[in-house]
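Severity: low
Component: inverse-folding endpoint
Summary: output formatting inconsistent between runs
Steps to reproduce: submit the following structure tokens with default settings.
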């Protein structure tokens, strides 16, 4: 495992364990609709992402993803991949770590591509999401919608 790679199991054993992961209460595998981000016109997010943002009062999570779209677009070219994985590890001390990684494609360990420390959040759940480039749009959705 690379030194920059963080596994959920590692974080849960730390002094400051993670809050539980968000699970979509309406998980059914289908995406009901898409909303376009105001910050990045190439980012659209699913209705489940919108419901999660409303429930957890974390619309800022979508904005953080949108702010990295230019960098992720460059990574798409460099890595020859159109699929990325987004984690927001929320700790009990109300801090968090935002991470974009490659999901361990090709049987390798997950490679962290982007990280951002968030000193304070009132978000009450750890979040996992997928980001996929398709038909000229970046699509952000929950694992339950895949």
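Observed output (run 2 of 3):
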């Amino acid at each position: 495992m690379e030194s920059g790679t963080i596994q959920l199991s590692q974080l849960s054993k730390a002094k400051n364990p993670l809050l539980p992961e968000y699970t979509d209460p309406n998980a059914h595998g289908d995406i009901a609709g898409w909303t376009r981000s105001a910050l990045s016109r190439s980012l659209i997010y699913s209705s489940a992402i919108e419901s999660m943002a409303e429930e957890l009062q974390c619309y800022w999570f979508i904005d953080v993803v949108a702010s990295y779209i230019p960098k992720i677009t460059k990574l798409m070219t460099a890595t020859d991949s159109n699929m990325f994985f987004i984690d927001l590890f929320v700790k009990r001390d109300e801090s968090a770590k935002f991470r974009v990684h490659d999901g361990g494609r090709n049987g390798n360990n997950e490679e962290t591509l982007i990280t951002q420390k968030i000193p304070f959040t009132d978000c009450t759940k750890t979040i996992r999401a997928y980001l996929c480039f398709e038909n000229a749009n970046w699509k952000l959705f929950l694992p339950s919608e895949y």
